[in-house]
Write a structure and sequence with these properties.
10 helices, Rossmann fold, 2 domains, about 240 residues, 4-stranded parallel β-sheet, alpha/beta
Length: about 240
């Protein structure tokens, strides 16, 4: 038996990529067409957005907690959330989560440490780039973080909110982000964190000969590894 994965979803594109990664990569461990049991719950995106836009992070935390409670009732053993930005509310919930979580920044920071990176760039929404989600997790592992200049942060944020989370992927946005990543490389970054869960759809390692830390797939693989902890192949 494998553990049952619960997904607290926020945006459709990022959650779908995370779900697909778990399903497709699970087959390499469990056999053709096989993957751990997965249940996903999401509130309408506008419920999250109106709280985020009003800096109501306690309200965001309440949605995350309520989703987790619903997943607990389905039998999920642990929970992940393939949305970097709303992790800003992770420690603000007034009620204890009923299930253990894998924290996306914890998993990405661990990956950066294991790859021996010392300085990484961070891309995502403005809330994410300027917020507290990644810096302490990276600093604890001896990794410095760099974010773009303010005007670039504003443009990247609008691009994500207006285009990327809706699956609108334009060549202009792709080229712009590639230029930002090249700048970070020239400024001494060892890698760049794609800290919006939809950015891996827009930018892939094939686009740039430079290490990218794909937060969506890193979280999905961590969940898959956790789900397989108690799995014993039938031929053993």
């Amino acid at each position: 038996m494998t553990q049952h994965i619960g997904i607290v979803a926020c945006t459709a594109e990022g959650a779908a990529l995370c779900y697909r990664t778990i399903c497709s990569e699970g087959a390499s461990f469990l056999g053709r067409h096989a993957h751990p049991e997965i249940t996903m719950h999401t509130y309408p995106l506008n419920e999250y957005m109106k709280r985020i836009e009003n800096n109501d992070w306690d309200g965001v935390a309440d949605l995350m907690s309520a989703s987790t409670e619903k997943l607990a009732r389905t039998g999920a053993d642990f929970v992940i959330c393939p949305d970097n930005t709303i992790h800003q509310a992770f420690y603000r919930t007034a009620r204890a989560f009923p299930l253990p979580w894998l924290h996306i920044a914890e998993e990405v920071a661990t990956e950066a440490m294991q790859r021996d990176y010392r300085r990484v760039g961070l891309l995502g929404t403005r809330h994410l780039m300027e917020g507290p989600v990644y810096p302490p997790k990276l600093a604890y592992r001896g990794v410095d973080v760099q974010i773009p200049e303010e005007l670039d942060r504003i443009r990247i944020h609008r691009m994500i909110i207006d285009e990327v989370i809706h699956g609108h992927l334009t060549p202009t946005s792709r080229c712009y982000l590639m230029d930002i990543i090249r700048q970070m490389k020239n400024q001494g970054c060892d890698a760049v964190i794609l800290g919006c869960t939809e950015l891996p759809i827009l930018i892939t390692p094939k686009d740039l000969p430079f290490p990218l830390l794909d937060s969506t797939r890193i979280l999905a693989r961590a969940a898959l590894k956790r789900a397989l902890v108690s799995y014993v192949p039938l031929n053993n």
